[in-house]
Amino acid sequence: MTDKTLRSSTKYTLDYHLYLRSSIWKRLRARFPVFKRRPRLLSLLIYLINGPTDSVSGLRPLSARIVSFVYHGDHSIERDRNIRVAEDVAELCAVTGCKIGHTNYDKAMHRAREAYEFVPSPEVSKIVFANQAPFTLREGLVNLITGELITPAERHAYHTARLAQADEKNAQCQHEECRTWLNYMNHEVTIEMLRPKAVNAINALNYAHNLTDANERCYAIDALESLLVLPHMPYEYSERTVRLFGKGYNPQNIAAELRQRLWPDLYELDLTSCQLAIFAKVCDVPKINEFLHSGKNIWEYLAQQCGLRLTATVKEVLKTVLYEIIFGAAEHTLFWKMASRSLTAEQLAVFTDDVQECFRKIPEIEALLKARDRTLKDIRKAKGKEDAYGQWVPVVKTGPKEERVNPRSVLAQVIQSWEFRLLAPFRELTLSEGRGSHGWTCIIWSHDGASIRIKHPARDAKSIINKICMAVNSYAASLGFATRIEIKSIN
Fold it and tell me: Would strands 141-143 and 148-150 be described as parallel, antiparallel, or unpaired?
């Protein structure tokens, strides 16, 4: 069987990473000649390796409609009813040695769909991931839908279209301060500002290739390739919060270790224990406020109380559980929910039933759980809660279609609004003094921090850091929040 001629759509091809650097494309076709006759199988392979996963199951959905898009490269195309998903996946695995680790069949919105956990064969992984040289624009990218090189003009058109799409959505944002900052991050930060130097790209790629976890390694390498192709992806606002979310492989969404290797000249700003401090103030937890004002390290304290040594593994679990409490997870599901979603076997081995019970009995954790339950009860009774800007966040939203919002979501939105407000002095300084000849540019926006590039660091770094810290810390203290900003040079 030979595939029919496929239509081209660079817009969506770049969107879903349905492209390959030309050298890898040639090696895969040389090793597996079936890809010359059936290029759709190569598109399917790369989608199963790099495509977006379901937020709940972590698997890659493969409904007939999605596969139609993967094969034709167009969201608007009707479902190709001649496609047999299971048959194509089986053929792909047979010719490449790849495996399906887990399959899930469910019905979402009354549509049957299949989802797959895909395990590339060692031979495929060696070709796709073993290239230590970072991508350069001179090498070229191949559109898997058509087998043709993607031109610089097409990349530029894609970036322009994504920005226009973000601008159209962001214009609907009712929060003026949020709109102003979105415009800054999307239009004053340019592709050239974010394009990493070759030596930094190689450093980041070497780090990614040496990751021991296969999933982390695949994700990191794919993220790097995407950022080297299009380093600037726009931010969009969320209808339910004032948070700014980076689309796709935006620098906001990649691991800190990769970000620091790609842009080692940046200075990182971070509000310490930000969400915990906000929760303590909003939900009135004096015990947590006292602890934060003491200057002690929360992670060292929690690990010590559990009888554990603070390692990277222990800290990761403690952070996840603490944030689960802050954002409303029920006490009896804290570790169970994590086990079903993100805990590795190594982490579960550390957090035994005895350790979990010990964690729940820590006085500060008991205070958090009681305050959280009380706050959720108050939200249900009042049918909402006021956010940092005096806006009412209702449990029931009226409109063309009435929507009921979980009180936990209301609490999360309130906390996130304070998160954005506490950094207001930084944004104001950046929009005024930062634009000057002795200023700085906010290159990457995080929810509770940012990464800045100082124009003349040798001369101005110390004074700029002091100015930002004084402004933000004074503001947080005046509002009664036990958090402060810390700035460190990545170098």
Answer: antiparallel
Biggest CA-to-CA distance, the chain: 71
> Rounded CA gap, 329 and 327, in Å?
6
The pLDDT, as a whole number, for residue 137 is 62
Asked if residue 127 lies in contact with residue 80, where contact means CB atoms within 8 angstroms, the answer is no
3-state class (DSSP) for residue 112: strand
Query: For residue 340, what pLDDT is reported?
Result: 43
Q: Mean pLDDT for each consecutive 10-residue tract of the chain (491 residues)?
A: 54 70 91 92 88 67 76 66 77 90 55 68 86 69 86 85 92 93 95 90 86 76 80 86 83 86 93 94 93 91 90 83 78 56 60 81 91 92 93 76 76 94 97 93 93 94 95 96 87 66
How many domains does the chain contain in total? 3
- Phi/psi of residue 246, nearest 5 degrees: -75, 135
Residue 384 zone, left/alpha/beta (φ > 0; ψ -120 to 50; rest): left
Would you state the pLDDT for residue 339?
A: 47
Phi, psi of 118 (to 5 degrees): -105, 135
Q: First and final CA of the chain: distance in angstroms?
A: 55
d(CA 239, CA 169): 10
Helices (H), 306-456: 312-326, 334-341, 345-350, 353-360, 363-382, 407-422, 424-432
For residues 324 and 338, membership in a common domain is answered with yes
Domain boundary, last residue among 150, 183, 205: 150
Select from 139, 234, 187, 160 the least CA-distant residue to 10.
160
15/116 same-domain check: yes
* pLDDT at site 78: 60
Give the domain range for residue 300. Answer: 275-386
- Does 237 lie in the same domain as 299? no
Is 105 within 8 Å of 117 (Cβ atoms)?
no
Name the phi and psi angles at 484, rounded to 5.
Answer: -150, 155
